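User: Can you recover a sequence for this backbone? Please restate the input before giving your answer.

Assistant: Of course. Working from this structure:
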């Protein structure tokens, strides 16, 4: 029977981190490291201790639309995709989005869309936890390529982890410690928010891994 593989070598939280928070940071670090290796290589653990070679993510794969009318990251000059009403953020690139009623069924989203969503969420939540509490999606600069997309994700993950390291037990029990405006953060105790962010990383990371598997077979 295969056994669970050991976790990648990631930094452990310092001893000053509250006992309730430490395992969530460890889970975040593991999921982040696994996702980055799944996109950049040179290998990723298969799950049973075997290193599987990884071809680094390309711009073509980053923007690949598995089905027609997928939502993605696009040049602002080209406008939003079908069903989207605008492109988020600022700069040359933006991510398909819609105000008000969302399309039904929900549009399929590309690897670029999902990675951009993660990067933006982490960066803005970090700001609304331990920063200015003012950044919003309109000022977020969306990455338009594979390398810049991975870098943006890494930067957001770094910022979020730093924000977590500044949280004490009182913060973990504080409602609205994160003022992130695009979720229920202002109504939730912070420990709930931390667990939710891990869930976002885990499930979108799994989606990105599956898209990579599909890309090489289609």
């Amino acid at each position: 029977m295969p056994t669970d593989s050991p976790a990648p070598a990631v930094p452990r939280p310092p001893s000053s981190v509250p006992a309730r928070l430490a395992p969530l940071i460890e889970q975040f670090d593991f999921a982040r490291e696994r996702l980055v290796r799944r996109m950049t290589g040179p290998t990723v653990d298969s799950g049973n201790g075997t290193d599987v070679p990884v071809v680094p993510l390309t711009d073509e794969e980053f923007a690949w639309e598995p089905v027609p009318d997928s939502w993605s990251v696009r040049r602002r000059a080209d406008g939003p995709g079908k069903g989207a009403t605008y492109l988020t953020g600022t700069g040359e690139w933006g991510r398909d989005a819609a105000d008000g009623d969302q399309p039904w069924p929900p549009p399929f989203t590309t690897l670029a869309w999902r990675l951009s969503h993660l990067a933006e969420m982490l960066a803005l939540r970090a700001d609304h936890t331990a920063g200015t509490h003012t950044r919003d999606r309109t000022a977020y600069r969306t990455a338009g390529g594979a390398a810049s997309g991975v870098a943006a994700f890494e930067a957001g993950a770094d910022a979020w982890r730093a924000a977590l390291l500044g949280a004490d037990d009182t913060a973990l029990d504080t409602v609205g410690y994160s003022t992130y405006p695009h979720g229920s953060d202002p109504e939730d105790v912070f420990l709930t928010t931390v667990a939710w962010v891990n869930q976002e990383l885990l499930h979108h990371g799994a989606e990105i891994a599956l898209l990579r598997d599909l890309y090489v077979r289609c």
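That completes the design. Strands lie at 43-45, 51-53, 73-75, 86-87, 93-97.
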